[in-house]
Amino acid sequence: MGEVYRARDTRLNRAVAIKVLPESFASDADRLLRFEHEAQVLSALNHPNLLSIYDVGTQGEIHYLVSEFLEGQTLRERIGGSALPQRRAAEYALQIASGLAAAHDKGIVHRDLKPDNVFVTRDERLKILDFGLAKQTQPAKGTDGATLTGPTPTAAGMVLGTVGYMSPEQVRAQPTDHRSDIFSFGAILYELVSGKRAFKGESSIETMNAIVKEEPPELGGSSPQVSPGLERIIRRCLEKAPERRFQSASDLAFALEALSGTSSGITARVDRASDGSAAKTSERGKLLRWVGAAVVLLACVGLGYFFAKRGAGESASLENVAFPQLSFRPEFIPNARFAPDGETVLFSSAADGNIPELFIHRPDYPAPQSMGLGDAHLLSISSKGDVAVLTHAVYLAQRLYRGTLSEMPLGGGAPREILQDVQEADWSPDGKLAIIREVEGKNRLEFPIGKVLYENSGYLSDMRFSPRGDRIAFFEHAVKYDDRGSVNVVDLTGHATVLSNGYQSEEGLAWAPDGKEIFFSGQVGNGLNLIVYRMTLAGQRRTVLAAPDDLWVLDVSKDGKLLVNRGEYNQRIMALAPGAKSEQEMSWLDGSNSGVLSSDGRNLLFSDSSAMTGLNYVLCWRQTNGSPVVRLGEGNAQGLSPDGKWALSAVPSTPMRLVLYPTGAGEPKTLENGNIQSYQTAAFFPDGKRVLACGSEAGQATRCYEQNVAGGAPRAVTPPGTTFGRISPDGNSILARDADGKYASYLVDGGAARPVPGTFPADEIIRWSKDGRSLLIYRHGEVPARVERLDLATGKRVPVRQLAPPSRAGVLDIRYVTFADDEQSYAYSYTRVLCRLAIATGVK
After folding, report:
1. Does the chain have fewer CB atoms within 10 Å around its N or its C terminus?
2. Catalytic residue among 30, 55, 105, 112
3. What is the mean pLDDT of the chain?
4. pLDDT per residue over 36-87, tens digit each?
5. How far apart are CA 39 and CA 52, in angstroms?
6. Cβ-contact 350, 342 below 8 angstroms
7. 144 given a catalytic annotation
């Protein structure tokens, strides 16, 4: 059909693929029509398992379409003539079925589904490609609402498709519908689990004859690891008569999803190694068993919940509380809302990594269904059913994303873009939007858009309008992406009140239907989890729900039902020690982060922020050979002195403090902070006599300061609005990022800033090279993290390595990447959150 080029979209700074119909084909009316039809079809589809189209057009005689750029390999290459592990095959199959369901919902039949037209990206996401032979079984609408035109109708007797994957009706050149794709899907799934084609003869004619008349060989003999449940699904897909197959790809996806959660399904045989011996339990096996345990826990939650009096107020009774479950797989669910009917639920979900997708759970169907909108994060639903979402959503931290504020109808459809670089939004009762966004280093709550009601230099979250629309409740966090903080309300004139503070963590907030109280989830002490509270506007608080794991409330219906998440949140550290052949876990409890390697890679400084460590966290020190953890003191790890004798910590007190802890014998030293109230990053200069601290004074924008270890007030070395300092090897320059995310180099002794070529706002700088000629960088929010070397003279990037834990389920980010001087040893932190969504009824 054409030639494909890799290109860069300079406006949005992203790699794209450009498919071009060669000039020699442009005169072929049929090829041209099919090329244009493929562009139309792709533009009507929006799903994470379908190729995304960005643009289409002509230039002179050249016809082109621009799509997302994919890195990885085709499913044909991944199979490589051998069977895949059954669990992996089932995961792939579920993704293909989900993509097919989205296409079929638009009335589009692929008609050429085969392993060559399915792409496996590096992060294990599958994408269905090549809709050049697609057909519309009903009028479909493009993203602008226009009816799509189809290609030249298939002539009677014309056979379209690929031999070996065509359905019997395709072979006979009979009319086809979406069930033809389901047959092709069955042939692919058969090949995934057996390594062999379902239908293969000595010639194309013999293969087509087998499709029409023969059954593929039994899987039990050649592939004994295939469970009976999965084989039944394959056989049903490969029924000769369309009416005997699954009647929709959605039903097929549901069958696969249900199979993966049963003991008689996929998990029944995965614990046997290929040689018949007992296999070691894999991390994924543990995860599926965790899923089963979570289902049991939720089913028994009325018996298993416990109460404790925490602070003011009393616990409520759970005698009449029930917890109907809404989600059934391990996933990250950052947000969920009731629709106006109080029964339908919309939610965002990221099953693998942090890219969100919209799902809807209707009361008449047990399983959530994709709304066909990937890379989108739910924000709010108005009383009239208008849905506010973030499109092009990029993960920030906790449950926060940043993207383009967009509006869409509850029934689905293409979102209409409103405003870029927004973090949160909520509808007022009369249908107007309030937003939270970052401007010039400040997090601002605006209503109406453009009017600032409240701002701070940390961040604001979980903004919700009261039912009367006269005030907005929200969480205030003093330190960026540290979810400790307070519960606040602000009226429409900007008068703000702190209702309650001192929480070690805050996640999830909603108003009671009468507008007199606020439900929220908070953590108030050591060893405790996030529990659900109910608070009056006078600050009187009582416990509503508590559990062995974290609970956060996301919404409350008009009749008082609570939409809650039950989740497991943890942060881990992985490290590759000098001379080691594989990464090892270096975590202490369940909140290990902020790792800093010593110059030789043999020692690791890190923090642990788990519930057991206290309000100001614990600074930890251990050798990368796995020695026991030594607790040095409080705070977040920032840096090690060049001689390794001192650890620099930022203690999140009020105001924050920079403290030096000895790694051996000695007493801690607290550095003077002048008027600095909070710190974001800090590090030692190469001489070990000075510290670079980036933070903010009261009411001022962030900037970087030089501070003498021996004493003295800090001295500003970068202009206001800059942060994230990295020091050059000679100690003369500071690499810092301004409020727009642009990097520049600043001389410590003053002078004009020098832009750093080849850097982008999403880049996170790990370190300078020892010769000062390059940087090690990675991009925020990518899973896996791709570490690259950036040449400071040319801006050219060279890949170094990819970092990710063995299992990526629920992995939201990879951060705090640190390398030793030889750049061979390294460490990194990752955050994993696994959730279950449920409704709590009967809560008083």
Report:
1. C
2. 112
3. 84
4. 666 666 666 778 888 888 887 888 778 888 888 998 999 999 998 888 888 8
5. 10
6. no
7. no
